[in-house]
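Quarterly update from the structural biology core.
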Amino acid sequence: MTMNDVPVTATHDQGIDPADLAAQYAETGLTCSESVLRACNDANDLRLPESAYGIATPFGGGMSGLRLTCGAVTGGFMALGLALGRKDASEPVGPSFEAGKELHARFTERFGSDRCSQLLGDLVVHTPEQQAFCAQCMGFAASTVTDLLTRAAAQAPEADENTTGTD
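Predicted structure, tokenized:
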């Protein structure tokens, strides 16, 4: 099965928790980064084209299985960049950077680290225990991204009102 074969089973608009969606994607065999990116995309209607999902593949397993930065975090960062990142150098990096810092802070506060090796500790890879723990990490990241994007969307009209008529 390729990533393009993975069915979308629900979206945030249908009341499905992004954490549940990330777990569903992981159960199909997607990596942590792929599952979080896809869940965030679907839950927040980010409209990432199917052809672009592969960008998350080498980030799984803590950066290609190296057990460095957790794939749930990097998948979340990709989703934040997709939604809040700038389109050219004239735009500010602030919204994307601030959301990324907040995701990182919340994740490390919750789990104590963003490093796959520290998060997994002595857990054996591909065991039910490891998969359950990683599902917690993926769910937390996907839910946090959705919270951050919801907050950013709520603040956007405020920003537009403050700049109206200042040209």
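The radius of gyration is 16 Å.
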